[in-house]
Design a protein that fits this description.
Length: 525
């Protein structure tokens, strides 16, 4: 039976899902995850990242090593007839960038199957560390880019987002400003997605329109590099960027390295995309009116839109990997904040859940702003603020962190997506029913869990399937592509409790006031 591989290189690890597909249905045949800290301790990461004040990066070689280890597992340990693999695609954490010199292209094309991948990549980087989405160090660069383009609203109208600290353009500008020599030695700047696709295809893979939308460099209407944005970012940037292409483009066949070293067939490598765009597919959100909420390292809210949503400061508009668009909100203090509270009160997830069940919806008005790390939505420096909440009240603090996350998401989602009939929850924490009950009560909508918590890897595998079929002359409707594997389990439906919805309707206004007061901002964001 034809097989399709989806990989997801996220902040904390690399996951794989293999789909087995016959004419009627697709099933998950294999699933595996590697955690960076545990599997590759020599890189010294914590939760997959290296921190230096507001600068947050990851070692790109670690991602390459993880890719090779995963490919070895898929070929040797998955119990699959790997000769049936037709296509591979992937998902990368968005915005992260990799800087390579002019030797990279030839090294990538001539990988020696007798040697490990990472060893052969030594010496191709013009910047040792890859800045990632958690980096908050580019505020000055954002101001400069917005100014050059006519203000944050103008940048948003052009690129889909106002200049944003974690986005690739401001990161590139900072690199140029602080290390001109290395910038000059940089021949290519890849995203996590396009770089890993390049390693698989042994060629310079394109950036797909969806992940390209997270750079502050692409014109969100024409889906081409925006000259004005390139000029506002760094000189000579255009020639350092890969091409932009549709999300269903074939980058090439799996390179001889993978075929000779691991016995893979010459499967099609489909361009990779970002993790949020892939999650849109992996949660089956290819129609209007349904919202996705991913509870991961960052929490995100996203939804599909056939027409271009009006870009605004504080939200992001991306091209969708299924055509059309998607809007996205990103909250940095996702599992980071939930884990911080759990650890502070020496709990496990079971006692965290118990605390949610023991406390009333709305926490009797006790509020927390859970900005354990600097927050991006709204923009706020690190700081945990409490209102009517005793720090010694363990259960109250658990309720407060989850209430806060859901209210912050729902208040902003309401402005972007009307109506919202149902919420599809994904990501690690979506396995927790008590968290999802708070979500249903705060959003005032039915919540469903995705069948597979790793929506990004699943979305990548489904994208591989769709693109492969297209290359064979079969253009499948997206509803058909996602059906079966992304169907929610109706028995797992979590209904909002009307009395709780009423409590949160009031509390959400007070939460918004508290947030405005402490973030020092009056507007959206
Ligand atoms: C979205 C964002 C994060 C990353 C990592 O804008 O920064 O969701 O994609 O998951």
């Amino acid at each position: 039976m034809p097989l399709f591989l989806g990989l997801d290189c996220s902040t904390q690890g690399l996951s794989a899902i293999v789909l087995d597909s016959d004419a009627w249905r697709r099933t998950v045949a294999f699933e595996h995850s590697l955690e960076f800290d545990r599997e590759f301790p020599e890189y010294g990461t914590t939760h997959g990242v290296l921190r230096n004040g507001l600068e947050v990066s990851s070692p790109p070689l670690m991602w390459a090593e993880a890719l090779e280890r995963m490919m070895a597992i898929v070929s040797r340990e998955a119990g699959l007839d790997i000769g049936d693999l037709r296509a591979i695609s992937g998902s990368g954490q968005q915005h992260g960038s990799i800087y390579v010199n002019e030797r990279a292209a030839s090294s990538c094309q001539a990988l020696d199957p007798r040697r490990s991948l990472a060893k052969q990549l030594d010496g191709i980087f013009s910047r040792a560390a890859s800045p990632i989405w958690m980096d908050e160090s580019t505020r000055d660069q954002c101001r400069a880019i917005d100014k050059a383009l006519g203000g944050p609203e103008a940048t948003a109208a052009l690129t889909g987002s106002a200049a944003t600290e974690r986005f690739t353009g401001p990161q590139i500008r900072k690199f140029f400003e602080t290390d001109r020599e290395s910038y000059a030695r940089t021949a290519r700047i890849h995203l996590v997605s396009s770089w890993l696709a390049s390693l698989l295809a042994g060629t310079d893979a394109s950036i797909d329109h969806a992940d390209g939308s997270g750079m502050n460099l692409m014109d969100i209407r024409t889906l081409a590099w925006a000259e004005a944005a390139l000029d506002a970012t760094a000189p000579g940037l255009g020639v350092k960027l890969p091409a932009l292409q549709s999300s269903w483009t074939i980058a090439g066949a799996l390179a001889p390295y993978w075929r000779e070293r691991y016995g893979f067939p010459p499967a099609a490598v489909i361009v990779w995309s970002g993790d949020n765009p892939c999650s849109l597919i992996g949660t089956g959100l290819v129609r209007k009116g349904w919202l996705g909420v991913s509870l991961g390292t960052s929490d995100t809210v996203f939804g599909f839109s056939a027409t271009l949503p009006t870009p605004s400061v504080g939200s992001h508009v991306f091209a969708s990997p299924a055509g059309g668009y998607m809007a996205l909100l990103c909250f940095r203090n996702g599992s980071l904040a939930r884990e911080a509270v759990r650890d502070q009160y020496r709990m496990d997830w079971e006692s965290f859940s118990r605390a949610l069940r023991q406390t009333p919806a709305g926490n009797g008005g006790a509020l927390m702003l859970p900005w354990f790390d600097p927050e991006v939505t709204p923009h706020a420096p690190a700081g945990v603020h409490r209102l009517n909440l005793d720090v010694a009240d363990a259960a109250g603090n658990v309720r407060a962190v989850v209430d806060a996350q859901m209210m912050s998401m729902a208040n902003r989602a309401e402005r972007l997506w009307q109506p919202c009939d149902r919420v599809i929850a994904t990501g690690g924490a979506s396995a927790n029913r008590d968290i999802l009950q708070v979500m249903a009560d705060v959003f005032g909508a039915e919540v469903y869990r995705t069948a597979d918590a790793n929506a990004a890897a699943l979305g990548a595998a489904l994208r591989a399937y769709h693109a492969y079929e297209l290359s064979q002359g079969r253009e499948l409707p997206w509803e058909q592509v996602v059906s079966g594997v992304t169907d929610v389990d109706e028995r797992g439906r979590i209904a909002p409790v009307p009395a709780n919805v009423a409590v949160y309707r009031e509390l959400r206004k007070r939460y918004a006031d508290f947030e405005r007061l402490k973030s020092g901002r009056s507007g959206v964001g």
